[in-house]
Amino acid sequence: MKSNGREISEGKIEKATELLWRVWWFCFYLLIVPSLIAVIGFYIFNFLIKDVYISSGFAVLSFMFSILLFYKPFDKYRKKSFFLNRLNNPTARIHILYLVSILSLIVTPIFVYITPEDYYFELLPLISYIILYNIIYLYFYFKPIDYFDISERAFKYHGRFVDSFKKFYNIILVVNFIFHIIFLSYTFDTKYSWLFALIADIIFYFISLSSTRKVRRNISKKIESKQPITLELNQYKQKFSILVISLVFALIIQMPFVVILVFSLMGHIFSNFEIFNAALFSIALLLFYLKIRVYFSIYHHKNKKQRELDIIE
Questions:
Q1: 97: closest CA among 67, 135, 126?
Q2: Alpha-carbon dihedral angle through residues 32, 36, 41, 46, given to the nearest 10 degrees
Q3: Which domain holds residue 68?
Q4: Are residues 98 and 56 in the same domain?
Q5: Which of 47, 80, 212, 230 lies most in the core, judged by the most C-beta atoms within 10 Å?
Q6: Given 83, 114, 146, which residue is the final one in a domain?
Q7: Bigger pLDDT: 113 or 238?
Q8: Whole-angstrom distance, CA of residue 194 vs CA of residue 171
Q9: Is the CB of residue 187 less than 8 Å from the CB of residue 193?
Q10: What is the pLDDT of residues 137-162, one digit of tens each?
Q11: Is the pLDDT score of 311 beyond 90?
Q12: How remote is the C-alpha of 313 from its chain's centroid?
């Protein structure tokens, strides 16, 4: 009985010690280090810019960037690791793309609450997005989806990382980056560009998780049973690419209406001709988007049939 009691006691001490270490590494990587970088960044920016409010905004940016950067070294101390789990790449790709974008846009309202209205920095959403989005490229280096190696039970690249980046499902990440910049640049003087981009990213984040749930589940099941996942993985890549394209068009189609809506609420009056031009521009983009969707459907349908024939042969 004493032996059993001692073993239970030692087990509790070991679990408590592990928990304390995880709490410590969480505080170190995601609180202490980012906070130190933010403080140092504030003094550096304040020395260069000589403006306490803009320096505060860049300090917040430094803090957010540090959290995203240091999450990977902290990840190995989690019970359910995000990056060391080599089987969750399709799901991780959605989380990384949208959550980093969402966090980069949330920086703006944080900054608004700590600065007077007269010091509002309209370009902060654009700058924060440009800086924080680079984390996505770094993380995708660790989470490839080119193909799945059944023997090693891990997703891998086809050749080098540079060659892999030429694949469309990777190129679309750059396209997403470029058009977010265009949207934020075009609408920055409304002071609400971050809000409309944030809403679009949140909506498509949940749409992406929902619409790819079935194919991701099929991929997981086939991995567990050690079956090839080529067809399912290609289907996932197609869905992922189309969803990102849809997000891009959702942003650029609404650009003129964001400007008209916000400035109308601020008292500016637009002529019927200006509203008509904005509507015509959006309709043209919508038709172009539908054309791209039709092209993708035909192209992937042909490729799917060919891949099925190759498997049968």
A1: 135
A2: 120
A3: 1-83
A4: no
A5: 212
A6: 83
A7: 238
A8: 24
A9: yes
A10: 888 888 899 999 888 888 988 877 77
A11: no
A12: 39
**Among 23, 51, 83, which residue terminates a domain?**
83
Do 101 and 228 lie in one domain? The reply is: yes
The percent of the chain in helix, strand and coil, each rounded to the nearest 5, is 80, 0, 15
Q: Do 235 and 177 have their domain in common?
A: yes
217 phi and psi angles, rounded to 5 deg: -65, -40
Weakest-pLDDT range from 89-103, 210-224, 269-283, 293-307: 293-307
Q: Which residues of 270-298 are buried (b: 16+ CB within 10 A; e: fewer)?
A: eeeeeeeebeeebeebeeebeeeeeeeee
Cβ neighbours, 10 Å, residue 221 = 12
> Looking at the structure, do residues 77 and 95 belong to the same domain, yes or no?
no
CA distances to 24, 92, 125 from 180, in Å: 37, 21, 10
**Rounded to 5°, angle at Cα 294 from 291 and 300:** 135
- Which comes out higher in pLDDT, residue 11 or 70? 70
Same domain (yes/no): 198, 277:
yes
pLDDT tens for each residue of 72-83? 888 888 877 888
Do residue 103 and residue 178 come from a single domain? Answer: yes
pTM of the entire predicted model = 0.84
Can you tell me the distance from the alpha carbon of 74 to that of 61, in angstroms, rounded to the nearest whole number? 20
pLDDT at 310 over 50: no
Q: Domain count of the chain?
A: 2
DSSP class of 161 = H
**Collapsed DSSP state (helix, strand, coil) of residue 76:** coil
- Say if residue 60 is in the same domain as residue 90: no
Q: What is the mean pLDDT of residues 241-260?
A: 89
Contact (Cβ atoms closer than 8 angstroms) between residue 237 and residue 145: yes
**Claim to verify: residue 216 and residue 280 sit in the same structural domain:** yes
